[in-house]
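Hi U.,

Before I forget, here's the chain from the pilot set. I'm dumping it here mostly so it's searchable later in email.
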Amino acid sequence: MNLKECEKKANGTADIVIEVSQDEYESALGKVFIKNRNRISVPGFRKGKAPRRIVEKMYGASVFHSDALDMLIPDIIDFTVGKSQLRIIGQPQLNDVDIKDDNTGVDFSFTVTYYPEITLGEYKGLSASKPDVEVQESEIDDEIAVIRERNARFEKTNRPVIDGDIAVIDFEGFLDGAPFEGGKDEDYELTIGSNTFIPGFEEKIIGMSTGEERRLELVFPEGYEDSLSGKSVVFKVKLNEIKEKMLPDLDDEFAKDVSEFDTFEEYKADITEKLLKTKQTESDEVFENALLDKLVDSVEADVPDIMVEDQMEKSFNSFSRQVTSYGMDPLEYLKMMNMTPETFRENSRASSEKQIKIKLALEKIAELEGLVASPEEIENEYKKAAESSGKEINDLKISAPEESVAHEIKLRMASRFVIDNATVENLENKGE
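Structure:
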């Protein structure tokens, strides 16, 4: 084979012509003939025994050409990658095949998309603002309040219903004097203030006493199911029981019940420490993202559409997995947001191109600084992934080859290099 032409274009593509010698082409024809001869019938010969020249005379000289060309393409692509020193993205587009009349060989003309070359500006000594890390007493109280609510118990009470109580009720709804489907239940435990029922229902329960019956005149909101949307209805409600929320005291016993600590002060100190760690992580992420924004501004690269579209597809798949994990259908969710998969992908175009440029910049930094993932770092990455996923390391190595894991580690090392060589412009959010 011979690389006859390799012309790079401004849009990240290159026109390539590979010359295959007549001997190489004849070898491919011979292999295709041997592969297919048992399926070929020629009068006067047993099936599969007719010579190639006889088959070609009967079916035409080009009978094996198409299969031979298909057989040659993988080797041609490998040769192109090695000879042109281009990092090819996606599948090459075959434009033309010229089988020479003088039997001197075949020319294959391709258009390939190649990994973009990058011009990178200054990446050392960047600066960005970084939020202060400070935990307010109110934040600690809010965190404890959530845990306290989770551990609340409910006890029967004889006083009238107030917000936060559980009202055990029988109810039946009527539209134009007739019961409607789904509007009836008995001993239903309704938490007042949960907004479980239509607007006004729970508010009208407040003040009721055990055994009391009330007639609630309400209106279903617009957009509810068609038969009830915007309709005036009447609910007949009987209050059977009231359960009062009892919050636990914030003492040492509470700490023992909800944590591994013996005292409330130890428990509170642990919450403070965890909040500090969370805020520190958030502050670090804000700083890193700000630095990467400045880094990407200095990147000059013609990013091919195929890379952007691939990243757009990854963004959509990530969104779909996240929505599915919440028990929702991605397409239905998009429909509620007045979007389609196509508009979602298109809306992610700018951010996808930015992500690619960040990746290109970090790859370049790793190259310039000689950053390489060690075998120990790669193995530790597999161990952490195995622990978090519950999968075997050998299975992970099949789904995520070592070179891809090493590449991800290298990108993180490059990002860390940028951070370690950056300065903080100012501290924000102090005292907030």
